Structure formats: structure tokens, C-alpha cells
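Can't paste images in this forum, so I'm doing it all in text. The chain is below; anyone willing to post the predicted C-alpha cells underneath?
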Amino acid sequence: MSSHRSLRVAEAIREVVAKVILFETADPRIHSVTVLGAEVSPDLRQATVSVSVMGTSTEQKLALKALQHAAGFFQSKVADRLQTRFTPVLRFKLDDSVKKSVEIGRLIDEAIASDRKPGLAPEEPHPDPSEPLDHDDDVPPDPS
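Text version of the structure:
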């Protein structure tokens, strides 16, 4: 099996699972799930679907449990799309990279906001290297 085929199958699985979550599942535990990607084993018999779940740790665990419970439903939808001899068995894995990046963005925003608090002196602009430097009034000019 070529790796190109594995990539096509993985992308098809990602698309199908994402669409089914958005449009065909009514389970409220799955409402905050975003499908990030899928990886397929070389023999195309197993696939791991990476998901991001916004919410608390408990909400994330419940969403993963609900996804795994509905794996057969997702697999049937994938089978309709792939029309291959075997449909990969789906496994779901939590990927917290999105949550981490949101947290990092929040921390950066907080740091920027704290730098802009009133009472702090604004940052001095960097001098333009093409302009001559101004001398302070109390420093005599260089006689040379």
C-alpha cells in the first residue's frame, strides 16, 4: 500500500468524521469536538482520529467516551465514503495542542495588557540609524 493512499484515506476519514459530528450527531457531549486529523495504519485496518475538545477535563473525558461509543456509527459513514474492502477501525485520541495554543495566546495578551497599564512610561522608540544622534544640552559637543 502506498503512503499516498494512506494519506488520502486519512483525509477522507477526517472529513467524514468532522461532517458527521457537525451535522449528524445529537449527543450533547460531542458538541464541542473539533476533528484535527487522522492517521491510518499501513494496512489501512486501523485509524486514529485526533480531536480537540474545549472544556474541562471532565467534559473532555466524556466527549472521548461518547466518540468511542459512537465509533461504529462513524465507521459506517466512513465505509460509505471509502468503498474499500475493509473499513478502518476508528480510535479517538485527545490532542490538546489547540487548547495549549489558546492558553499561550491568552498569556501573551495578558502580558501585553500589563505592559500598557497607565502610569508606565511608554517604550522609547529605537533611533533611526540614518539620523545623527542628538546630544544632551549638558554635554559639550565634541571639539574635533
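The radius of gyration is 27 Å. The helical segments are 3-23, 57-69, 71-82, 97-115.
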